[in-house]
Amino acid sequence: MDYDARAQQKLLSLMENKSCTLLAIETSCDETAAAVVKDGKTVLSNAVYSQVELHKKFGGVVPELASRSHVEKLTPTVNLALSEARLGFCDLDAVAVTARPGLVGALLTGVNYAKGLAYGLMLPLVGVDHILGHIAANYITSPELEPPFVCLAVSGGHSHLYLVESYTKLTLLGRTRDDAAGEAFDKVARVLGLGYPGGPALEALAAKGGEAGIVFPSQFNEGPGLDFSFSGLKTAVINYLLNAKQKGETPANEDIALAFEKNITSVLIHKTIAAAKLTASKKIALAGGVCANKRLRLGMAQAASEAGLNFFCPSFDLSTDNAAMIGAAGYFCLMDGRRDGLDLNASSK
Ligand code: KG4
Ligand code: ZN
To answer: pLDDT 10s digit of each residue in the chain, 349 long?
Structure first.
């Protein structure tokens, strides 16, 4: 029997038993990650090798270096994930891999590795959307959560509001028209002289800030629509710094960071609650790297409780990029009968 027939036969038996021990791989950006996930919600291991040190001196991710580092670190990271799960390759039922969106060169390293593995083991392979993975991190942290719910997915490349209709079906309710929320955090962090990665550094600086009467405009996000726009906010921060310099003033960066953080998180919270009302949803969730931000998590939890909504959020370690979330999403794709062939390709979109 050829690969396709064997993989299809295995997929059908997994669907029948609703059970699957899956190896997941994530290499979409600057984290080389591998995890073993059982039945979509139980994480047996979650190994993450961060490339932060590699890219730090360049102030951001260098795609070519990211790909080369993934190639070096994939094998040890997969081996670590298997040994932490106390399993061998022969215990696996399927392979899931992030196939889109992300840096194409980086994605290709994981996709090719996963294809080789699936072929060598004659197992079903599934290419997973990174954002579906971030959303699925919620099912691991909160196994009781089931669709439908409204989810705000905020990462370095996304600020999207979705109605999560099923484990594999998303309907887009709103999106950023320019910068993503994480991108805005990173860019503002850079103008404030903070290093990469900017989001956590900006959050730490904002925690030292106080009320200094700095209020950045939010007219770009007013009105009933569910789309976001953050480039105007970024420009407002830059202009504020330039004006202060011209006047010979030296405002505290901590206060600017706090004013920025308050502005962006309140917009994200306001639009998410509005999306829940619009779709008559009773549950809201967060997803993506920016949901590691405490002001966003706590603010969203409070707004949800005031609006009578249930609130869900991935644990901190599952908020930023990891492979366990890809394993969770991959499981639900497989249970829907979806698998990819050995022609699976990576896509930036
Ligand atoms: O999901 P993620 O790890 O990678 C992408 O898919 O992009 O998200 C990374 C983004 C970066 O822009 C990073 O600055 C932001 O999430 N981020 C944060 C925090 N931790 C990560 N932004 C604000 N506060 C944080 N604590
Ligand atoms: Zn991500």
So the answer is: 799 999 999 999 999 999 999 999 999 999 999 999 999 999 999 999 999 999 988 988 999 999 999 999 999 999 999 999 999 999 999 999 999 999 999 999 999 999 999 999 999 999 999 999 999 999 999 999 999 999 999 999 999 999 999 999 999 999 999 999 999 999 999 999 998 889 999 999 999 999 888 889 887 778 779 999 999 999 999 999 999 999 998 889 999 999 999 999 999 999 999 999 999 999 999 999 999 999 999 999 999 999 999 999 999 999 999 999 999 999 999 999 999 999 999 999 8
User: Which among 130, 185, 194 is the best mutation to test ligand 1's pocket, defined by most ligand atoms within 8 Å of the CB?
Assistant: 185
Ligand 1 atom at minimum distance from 197 CA: 14
Among candidate residues 34, 59, 36, the one with its CA nearest the CA of residue 48: 34
Round to whole Å and give the CA distance between 273 and 18.
34
- Residue 131, ligand 1, Cβ within 6 A: no
- CA of 326, nearest ligand number: 2
- Which atom of ligand 1 sits closest to the CA of residue 28? 6
Torsional class of 247: left (φ above 0), alpha (ψ -120 to 50), beta (otherwise):
alpha
